[in-house]
């Protein structure tokens, strides 16, 4: 059997160190990958003069799978978000953000297990019609939702729920006010729901969803929503389980899939061996599940759970005193 090649983008700030942890753990678990390293972000701007070099895009295209550390897009005009650029280039229409409670974290809840399925290419983040008046007194942007875009993301959510034995899909919207865009999304969600009678379907206005997530997170299973709402809701969900350090993300399309740590590059702690690598380790678990390597994914997840639950060599944000390497070694020892 030929070896599977994975494109790896170490990223900026703490990215290289946490990616190093994930690779060491996958190797220890016997995943047998070969890695092609690619640059993006500030590191690429310095070495290649571009935030997203063409050769990096080619490596992702070639392998179809990438594991990515956090990237920094310089603040200010003239720089498009690198993550948005990659999603558009490969039409990575589905953003998957699972969160689950881990015993041993400082999270406020013990029974959270939610997947947010976010449409990744349309809506307010599409960049359509963005402009400011010359005198700086007004600004506008356009949100575009298409029937095709809504259909494929809602179907993706239901297929995911069916595949993983999930019980319920909640369509989150604001159709009471945004009757055109959110109205179309909700209309499509209702149509698709009829095709999946085996799965409970509900709909919820986004502000009510935020309140209910904080009060009764155990009521949620799979949420599907548009781009802007999904961005906000998935970070709220991360807060339920201990923060962005405990939340992975996947961007999935027909041609490629990119798995990532969803937090920032944290340049203030880069190189200090104190970052928590859990987010990107969980992203690598997502990647293994996507590739059908469920046994390897389960072994790594159990090792991560055990380290965090025992408090053995955990990082500061998890209540311990260990650094990135020591925490990683604790997981390696269990594997």
UniProtKB/TrEMBL annotation:
Domain spans labelled Isopropylmalate dehydrogenase-like: 5-331
Superkingdom classification of source: Bacteria
Record's keyword terms, sorted: Oxidoreductase
Any single biological process term in GO: isocitrate metabolic process
Matching Pfam families: Iso_dh
GO molecular function, one term: isocitrate dehydrogenase (NAD+) activity
Entry EC number(s): 1.1.1.41
Transmembrane parts of this sequence: none
Family, per entry: Belongs to the isocitrate and isopropylmalate dehydrogenases family.
NCBIfam families: PRK08997.1 (NF006529)
Protein name in UniProt: Isocitrate dehydrogenase
């Amino acid at each position: 059997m030929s070896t599977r090649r994975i494109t790896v983008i170490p990223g900026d700030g703490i990215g290289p160190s946490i990616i190093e942890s994930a690779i060491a753990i996958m190797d220890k678990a016997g995943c047998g990958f070969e890695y092609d390293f690619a640059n993006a972000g500030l590191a690429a701007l310095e070495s290649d003069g571009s935030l997203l070099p063409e050769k990096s895009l080619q490596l992702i295209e070639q392998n179809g799978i990438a594991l990515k550390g956090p990237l920094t897009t310089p603040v200010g005009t003239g720089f498009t978000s690198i993550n948005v650029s990659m999603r558009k280039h490969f039409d990575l229409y589905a953003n998957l953000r699972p969160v689950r409670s881990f015993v041993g974290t400082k999270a406020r809840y013990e029974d959270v297990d939610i997947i947010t399925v976010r449409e990744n290419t349309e809506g307010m983040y599409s960049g359509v019609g963005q402009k400011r008046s010359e005198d700086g007194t007004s600004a506008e942007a356009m949100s575009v939702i298409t029937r095709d875009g809504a259909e494929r993301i809602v179907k993706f959510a239901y297929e995911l729920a069916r595949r993983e034995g999930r019980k319920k899909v909640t369509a989150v919207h604001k159709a009471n006010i945004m009757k055109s865009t959110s109205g179309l999304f909700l209309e499509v969600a209702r149509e698709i729901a009829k095709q999946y009678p085996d799965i409970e379907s509900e709909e919820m206005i986004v502000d009510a969803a935020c309140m209910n997530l904080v009060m009764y997170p155990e009521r949620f299973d799979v949420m599907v929503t548009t781009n802007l709402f999904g961005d906000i809701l998935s970070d709220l969900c991360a807060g339920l389980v201990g923060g962005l350090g405990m939340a992975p993300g996947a961007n999935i399309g027909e041609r490629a899939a990119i798995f990532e740590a969803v937090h920032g590059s944290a340049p203030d702690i880069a190189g200090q061996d104190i970052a928590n690598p859990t987010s990107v380790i969980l992203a690598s678990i997502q990647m293994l599940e996507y590739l059908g390597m469920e046994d390897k994914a389960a072994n790594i997840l159990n090792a991560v759970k055990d380290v965090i639950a025992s408090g053995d060599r955990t990082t500061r944000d998890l209540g311990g005193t260990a650094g990135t390497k020591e925490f990683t070694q604790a997981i390696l020892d269990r594997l």
